[in-house]
Design brief:
heterodimer; A: Rna Polymerase Sigma Factor, Chain: A; globular; B: four-stranded antiparallel β-sheet; DNA binding (chain A); transcription regulation (chain A); sigma factor (chain A); RNA_pol_sigma-70-like (chain A); sigma factor activity (chain A)
């Protein structure tokens, strides 16, 4: 393992992360190229793990999920279809789904966690966010978020970072049943249009 | 739930804010709605940009662990276009089924018209089902879902026909197994989609003692994950 380089901690994801390169690294990984996969890991792990950690909060569990996600990426890299979305979106979608499934499974086991989460649902800007504050993309995202209505923003943050269902979000924000999903969708559409992705 | 209402779930789906039932319903809808697929993809892209705000490098240990792990895992092959026109998408195999799916009010109602189209896998299933020496056993999978296992010893093949099978969670798939006389579960292929499916199990079924159904990560696993969804024993076949 002498070729392994330690990951410098707190390295921000490069702003101009070359998206095409991630696609190439995925394709090489699909062919069994372990070095390409290591490069993919180095380019995306801080971002992927940061998301997983934000949703799960428990560092040990978050590392487990990050490990599962990267193994899934290795196994299924050939199934990535660039025509359907960016490599980064594919990775983050896999990671988010697994992180949310993990917190929901844990919740199903011990329902008492729910009261803890409900009392602490105010989205805090944790220390991990600070490292990325300088990132251009993070600034763009913050600017786009600032254009949402407060309800759209809060609903989105509770759903995405909190891992709550739209029905739970509705209760948390005192919204009429069925309207949280609309706020989430409207908020995402405004985000998408403000950032200029996916079009 | 009306078409308009289900369409409105695209945002919540893109950020995983649907409960399991809603997710399954929406994925059924996605299979038939290109507009929703495009919208979901663009919203997932937008949601992914959130992660630029929360970077946190995992420990160096994790990197070493993952890179050691992958040495023992074979990447799955790409999904190739096939003559039976299955499409390489995670909801791909739902497309055909979706044509006969109708989503109504509080529950999902599935109608399966006669499956007798010219798809090769179907006729292979029918070949087993209509073999002179066919035996069959039906097992209740709960929540209205059923699976019937057919085997023809002369053909050496088994087929599984499901009804009202709920969709596997997104990112997961059903996988089939044949249990050999030594008690080992041998991979018998994937069962994609939901509802009423009919598939031929891969491998020689003439000596198998049972068939298993499990839920596995997309692409399947080398060994079955526990708990199994069902084990259907040939012994009980009539």
């Amino acid at each position: 393992m002498s070729h392994l380089q330690p990951v410098p901690s707190g390295t921000p994801v490069p702003d101009q992360a070359p998206v095409a390169d991630l696609g190439a690294l995925l394709r090489q990984s699909a062919r069994g190229d372990q070095q390409a996969f290591a490069a993919l890991y180095d380019a995306t792990s801080a971002r992927l793990h940061g998301l997983v950690l934000r949703v799960i909060r428990d560092p040990a569990q978050a590392e487990e999920v990050t490990q599962e996600v990267f193994l899934q990426v290795w196994r299924t890299a050939a199934r990535f279809d660039e025509a359907k979305g960016s490599p980064l979106a594919w990775l983050m979608t896999l990671a988010h789904r697994r992180a949310v499934d993990r917190v929901r499974a844990a919740e199903a086991v011990s329902r008492q966690d729910t009261s803890y989460h409900q009392n602490n649902h105010v989205v805090d800007h944790d220390s991990t966010a600070e490292a990325a504050e300088k990132s251009m993309e993070a600034r763009r995202v913050r600017a786009a978020l600032a254009e949402l209505t407060p309800v759209q923003r809060e609903a989105l943050e509770l759903a995405y970072f909190g891992g709550y269902t739209h029905a739970e979000v509705a209760v948390m924000l005192d919204l009429p049943v069925g309207t949280a999903k609309t706020r989430i969708r409207d908020g995402l559409i405004r985000m998408r249009d403000a950032i200029g992705v996916g079009q | 739930m009306t078409a308009h209402e289900i369409h409105a779930l695209s945002g919540a789906y893109a950020v995983d804010a649907l409960d399991d039932l809603e997710r399954a319903r929406f994925e059924d809808h996605l299979a038939a709605c290109a507009e929703c697929r495009a919208e979901v993809a663009s919203l997932q892209d937008a949601a992914a940009s959130f992660s630029s705000m929360t970077t946190a490098a995992p420990s160096a240990d994790l990197r070493a662990k993952i890179l050691a792990d992958i040495k023992t895992v074979r990447p799955l092959p790409p999904v190739v276009a096939r003559l039976d026109s299955r499409r390489p998408r995670r909801w791909a195999n739902l497309v055909a089924a979706a044509a006969v799916l109708t989503v109504l009010g509080g529950g999902v109602t599935v109608w399966q018209q006669n499956h007798s189209t010219s798809q090769a896998p179907i006729s292979a299933v029918d070949q087993i089902r209509t073999a002179a020496d066919v035996t069959a056993v039906t097992q209740d999978l709960g929540k209205g879902a059923k699976a019937t296992l057919y085997r023809s010893a002369s053909l050496g093949k088994a087929a599984l026909v499901t009804s009202h099978l709920p969709a596997a969670p997104n990112g997961k798939t059903y996988q089939l197994w044949l249990q050999n006389r030594a008690g080992h579960m041998v991979n018998a292929g994937l069962l994609d989609g939901s509802g009423n499916r009919a598939v031929v199990l891969q491998g020689d079924a003439s000596d198998a003692t049972a068939a298993g159904i499990t839920v596995e990560p997309a692409g399947g696993s080398q060994t079955p994950s526990l708990p199994v969804v069902a084990v259907i024993e040939f012994e009980k076949a009539t």
